[in-house]
Design goal:
The protein has one helix at residues 7-16, and strands at residues 33-37, 43-46, 51-56, 61-66, 70-73, 79-85. It has a domain at 29-85: Jelly Rolls (Sandwich), CATH 2.60.120. The protein is mainly beta. The N and C termini lie close together (12 Å). Strand 3 (51-56) and strand 4 form a beta hairpin. The longest helix is centred in the first third of the chain and has 10 residues, at 7-16. It is built from 1 helix and 6 strands. The strands form 2 sheets. Strands 1-6-3-4 form a 4-stranded antiparallel beta sheet, with no helix packed on it. It has a two-stranded antiparallel ribbon with strand order 2-5.
Length: 87
C-alpha cells in the first residue's frame, strides 16, 4: 500500500480555504507506529480494512478501531497510532 506523503497538507489547505478536503488513502505496514504528535487541522479517520490503535494521551484513553469504525480528532489533539494489521 502507498504511503500518503504530503496529501494531508493539501487537504488541510483546501479545508482552510473554505473547500472540502478530499479523502486521503493511508496504507501503512502492519505494526508501524507513530510517536505522540498533533495536526493543525481536524481529522476524520475511517477504517476500511485492518485495524489501527490511536492513543489519546491527554485524555488517558486508547481507541481501537477496526474495519467500519470512524474517529474524529479535532485540530491540536495529541495522538499516537499503531497499525495492528491491514486485513
Amino acid at each position: 500500500m502507498a504511503r500518503s506523503g504530503g496529501s494531508h497538507r493539501k487537504g488541510a489547505a483546501r479545508a482552510a480555504a473554505g473547500g472540502r478536503p478530499e479523502p486521503v488513502h493511508v496504507g501503512q505496514w502492519p505494526f508501524d507506529r507513530y510517536a505522540a504528535h498533533s495536526h493543525d487541522y481536524d481529522k476524520v479517520i475511517y477504517v476500511v480494512s485492518g485495524a489501527i490503535t490511536f492513543g489519546l494521551p491527554h485524555q488517558g484513553r486508547v481507541a481501537q478501531l477496526n474495519a467500519g469504525d470512524r474517529l474524529e480528532l479535532p485540530a491540536a489533539q495529541c495522538m499516537t497510532r499503531s497499525w495492528a494489521s491491514r486485513e
